[in-house]
Amino acid sequence: MKHEADDNEVIARIIGGDKEACTPLVQRYQQKIFQTCIGFLHDEDEAQDLTQEVLIKICRSLGQFKEQSAFSTWIYRITINMAINRVRKLKIKSLFKPIDDNTKVLSYSSAEQSDGRLMRLEQKQMIQKALGKLTSTQRKAFVLSYYRDLSNKEVGEIMNLSVGAIESLIYRARLRLQEVLKNN
């Protein structure tokens, strides 16, 4: 694969001390990392912040990449682990957040815009709540499959599980999501 060869060249340059060589990796993977982060966080600002943190970690940790899997698989593992940690931190923070924190939602100019944005916000919150009802492994498999549009084989490589196990996780995740969304 062309990207993997390019990635290996860039990795060798970075490990050799060329700190500027990380730029092509950032450009190549930034959007994919962001999309994965948004799949877990459902908040653009949080996803942007986490994307930057992931990219920094990747560039600083390249010496730990052992080439036992594809570079993109290694990146997804880092991204998923950091996203799950961020979700946990945000859940803890939300326990201490004031209940009436909807001032941002109500500050839009027209009533129509406000209604549309409020409905989208409510839909996002329902989906986020439903995803929160999944087990950690179901959520990982579902996000990688549906938000990142990865094949079951690719998801299996990232999660170190068989294709059959991934299919089962995604199936159970879809059933659980349907159940939770139906009851809302």
How many strand elements? 0
Helix content: over 70%
User: Ends: how far apart?
Assistant: 45 Å
Q: Label the overall shape.
A: globular
Query: And the CATH topology of the largest domain?
Result: Rna Polymerase Sigma Factor, Chain: A
**CATH homologous superfamily of the largest domain, by name?**
RNA polymerase sigma factor, region 2, helix turn helix motif
Poorly predicted sequence stretches spanning 5 or more consecutive residues: 97-112
Query: Structural class per helix/strand content?
Result: mainly alpha
- Which whole number gives the mean pLDDT? 80
Sheet with most strands: none
In total, the number of domains comes to 2
CATH architecture of the largest domain: Orthogonal Bundle
Q: Compute the CA-based radius of gyration.
A: 19 Å
Beta strand %: under 5%
Properties at a glance:
Arc Repressor Mutant, subunit A, 0% strand, mainly alpha, Rna Polymerase Sigma Factor, Chain: A, 2 domains, 184 residues, single chain, 8 helices, globular
